[in-house]
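Protein in question kept underneath.
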Amino acid sequence: MLFKNGAIRYLIIWYAIFLHLMQGGLLVASDTAGFVTSTAHVRIWLHLSPDSLGVLYLGVAITALLSMAVFRSFSLQRIVALLPQQVLITLAAAGALVAIVDSQFADGVVRSRYFIGADQAPIIIAAVLHSAAVMDGRIEVLWKSLQSR
């Protein structure tokens, strides 16, 4: 296992849960939160309008799946529950990378690639760590199923 006793895996999953709950809450408070770089690119790629509560509903549904996944034992169901979050966080990281390459935030503010890279590093790192946690769980489930045969 890449992470001893799964402790790191749980931390990144909880981070993703709280990140999307916070983003959802901010979207309820103000639709301008829909223009944050990572959220805006997810919203654009999923064809949701900026004032749409679609991003909020998507985040809440994915958070519910994640919460169930955290409390389940390792199984294929748990891995499947983690995959929507993986897709969402990967899209957000891809949006951050687009902003870095374009030297422009989603709201049109132009900054240097280095500035945007430093600003967007947390979502990119989160996507990498979340991928590692999901893959680690998938490897463990596969290994256990092979051992039981």
Q: What stands out?
A: The chain has one domain: 4-147. Helices lie at 7-29, 37-45, 54-71, 76-102, 113-147. The chain has five helices and no strands. The mean pLDDT is 76.
